């Protein structure tokens, strides 16, 4: 039973003083899956990951990672997993290359092989040019890529990723996503913490939504989104005077009340089924309304939370994480 | 999902994370046998040396003060205190050597405290290595720092006209003794580094603790010239015993008892504070 699960956690609890950071979390992650843990700031994502990665001892509950108990068999767990923490887990005062060599040596490669492995990873992650630069002079995206490279100096069976794209621009984010997909493609189990529904949707096979230290929903991305609704269609017209006409047409095509935005030429309609959005847009063109543009937006984390909990995602702590 | 094509999409971009190389890199990493405890510590020692190379400021800070001292005391006060600058240099050089290396050892605690605030420690702790390896390795790396600091002071001393009756062997033995003692003292500061909140708190309290020990010793003055209460403190101060032994080794008239005392002090410090550091480090979450 346990052998098919990469992570099996029951009733994990961790408090800091009066804060119950994690308050009875259960998780079951299949081997080879990408599992998303979605939650707002302060939900307890990092604390959960730290317990699973053997860095923090749970106050209560238990967890098995790849068949080993995270407390009593911590050393065995460490031999199978790798961690990319929320604060990039690389050494600022070393160069990119030195960081990877350091990791290679610590994992048991002889000096020459550690160097070869470092160069191979630098090439694969597009970091050759920056290899000799101190990491403190890296951009956020380069840092993240180096961090990921450091996590796969030896391919782990399970990888913990804590908000790998927070603070990255879209291009760097896509690079990180590609890396995660490649890793998953080769059979590594990935536990991914994120604040972005979009990210979990792109990468994860299953998602647990956590809020205030508790799992409040669990399922596939599509089931989760279905419980929230399909998102929104935003339309911007060439002629603001045609907005009322557009609202009427969209409302009829999508059975939903359009929302008129502050921008006099724009309006948004909630949709359940993205396929119908195409018909709605076609209806506007058919009626001779000129469009400046349209876009389909995923439901945001806020909307997920609103739908699941009845309250919007709250920031428990207002501090911003450094990128 | 906007229908307007984004301008970047048109021009080819370097695709670092793209397919082939990435997959090759991912699949070509068979797990080597785990390194032993010592190999891991040695690797962390190497990390410490890289830091000396990339961030030499700390070493410079810590050695600059004693160097200034040496020059200033020799020329400003030397004449007044002993009647000749040469004679005073002869007296204070071993003390300044001790002082310079001991102040450098505070940085062991500062560096550990800095490390703990960074994400990289999480990675070290998630590796299947001996848990104390980062600590032991760092302190071993610091010994290289001590060696550099002591070399600078000794070379400057020779340049100013210091002559060692103990010969090269005596000077090297003196440096080694100072390094051994600083290694032991480093553990006190790493303990402090794990107990205090910020790197600057570690630095301040480390220096505050060292100042009385270094200045109320026989580093700069003959204890017999002091009021009796002070003289008593100076005589039991472990820094005084270290300076005495160092002076003896450089001057070629060291007593085994003096050296033995220093080694015993170093052993006691290490025996108490090294395990304490390791314990605090492991408990830290
Ligand atoms: N070491 C600590 N000491 C005290 N409180 C802590 C500590 N670590 C976390 N907390 C608190 O526990 C709660 C959960 O924190 P955690 O870092 O797990 O959240 P998170 O979901 O990772 O949030 P974020 O998205 O901001 O990273 C927060 O209220 C946080 O302030
Ligand atoms: Mg977090």
Contiguous runs where pLDDT drops below 50 for at least 5 residues of chain B: 1-18
Shape of chain B: elongated
Tally of separate helices of chain B: 12
Biggest sheet overview of chain B: none
Distance between the termini of chain A: 40 Å
H-E order of chain A = EEEHEEHEHHHEHEHEEHEHEEHEH
* Helix/strand class of chain A: alpha/beta
The CATH class designation of the largest domain in chain A is Alpha Beta
**Oligomer state of the chains in this structure:** heterodimer
Bound molecules: adenosine-5'-triphosphate, magnesium ion
Strand content of chain B: under 5%
Main β-sheet of chain A, in a few words?
A: 6 strands, mixed
Q: Name the poorly predicted regions of chain A.
A: 315-323
CATH topology of the largest domain in chain A: Rossmann fold
CATH superfamily label of the largest domain in chain A: P-loop containing nucleotide triphosphate hydrolases
Number of domains of chain A: 2
Number of domains of chain B: 1
